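Bug #77: duplicate submission created two jobs. Keeping one. Sequence:
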Amino acid sequence: MATASRVILGLYQGYNANACLLVEGEPTVIVENERHTRVRHAYGPSAECVEACLRGAGMTIGDVDRVAFCGASDLDTDYAYDIPASGKDGNCFPALAGTRLLSADCFRETPIRVLGRTLPGVIVEHHVAHAASAFYTSGFQQSVILAFDGLGDFGRSCLILRGSGTRIDCLESVPLRIGLAFKKAGTHLYRLAGTGFDAAGKLMALAALGEPRYLGAARLFLDHVDVSTGTREWLLPELGKLRQGALSDLDSSPARDFAASLQAVSSAATLNLLRRYLRPGDRLCLAGGCALNVIINRDLLRELPIAALYIPPCPHDGGLGLGASLYLRNHIEGASSRSNGLDPYRGLTNLDGVGSKAMPCLGGPNGGPIGVAERGAEEQVDAAVRLLAQGEVIGWCHGRSEVGPRALGNRSLLADPARDWMASHLNRRVKHRESFRPYGLSLREENVGRVFGTDAVRSPYMMLAATMTGNWCQALPAVVHVDGSTRYHTVSQQANPLFWQLLAAFEAATGVPGLLNTSYNLPGEPIAESAADCLAVFHDTAINHLFIGRLHLSKG
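Kept job's structure:
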């Protein structure tokens, strides 16, 4: 067993590049590069991101004991962190023999140079880092772990692992390419340039509008996505109308039906895989970009005899720096850093101290005036409830930013979910996105059973979808998708006391047990991070009220 490191820096430089600082085993700061560059899914190494991560914890590179770097492919590539070739035979990445892993240890020790300092480091395999980000923050002592996404190291897309204590052991590498299938289908049908992972999320939303009429074509595509080009050559003849860009045409029933078919086939394939490993009463952790698919997650909860399901707030590549650092601390050093769920408010910027003097130029859009009122927490809640009850959409930006792609009440746009026009208004006037895209519901933990039934589970990171019971679907139409499901976020008083207080006050005033919650950002941009980002969104978005720090800003 290695001596436990006090400070570990976790790094990932690929898609959704990020840095994480682990202090005494606890995640202290987690920063995605996109929050600095304002380029969504920013790729590549960033000294600024690393420096910001250290600065957020009041540290310098001199305080770091070891570095955990996620990314095992192309080991001789210049990662801009100066990683030399390995001189050790004992710590190596597992080779593949068919689908079986030959080694349980998926890391390699090597010195890594960061910000001018050479530190002892470890390179951790991509999907193992995903698994670590989930298991070591789940609070579970034992768990089956599924890590699945588009593509990781050595061409892998899916690993089955088992966590026990401080160890994670690989069981099998499976050629299940759900992430790649959604990416390629979405990219082709949306005619998008670039990576296409945004299109994958849109495809998931569109699936609810269709019927799974093309299951054979979807299975064929999923099985052969490695060799497909994303064009019609992988489609059966009856799908010939699925031209490039077809999803831009909402009257294209073949496009909707193919999306529904791919979703159904993906859920079934995931269920069949996990049934081979799970025993009744097992716990399950999910990680990787496919863990953002709330429909798969819902189906796993419905169909599998598991005791609990855990998905971290950053299951995508934005959590790989976290996962690599936790793997080093736990599996390699043998020092436990267990927590019962990850505090998602581990972003860089804290807005609680923002007052009128701390804000940048407060000129309104087109030079119009912006009203500024400094209010205490109670006054902010009262003012926000009045506006929400009147049908206003408000910006709600407080505390440290959320980790991951889902707004969890600290960088959020909020609205009354009981108004049947609200989702359409948000899509057309505020978010500027497709009309079929749904919105999530934030509600207090105490209300989850009342709204979703007694079998409903907590969803602290908005990673689950469920169907509301009784008359709630009719009462809260703005957060109900066309298939009757709602992506939901449960808020505890301990995790976010101010947001919990707002939800309680809104319910007391209106009888509505939650709020529509969506991310506070401009179209095509990451979630706002700093006070300047929040003000830019306020200027350029059709909302009239922003609550940020101690301020209530209103457009004249």
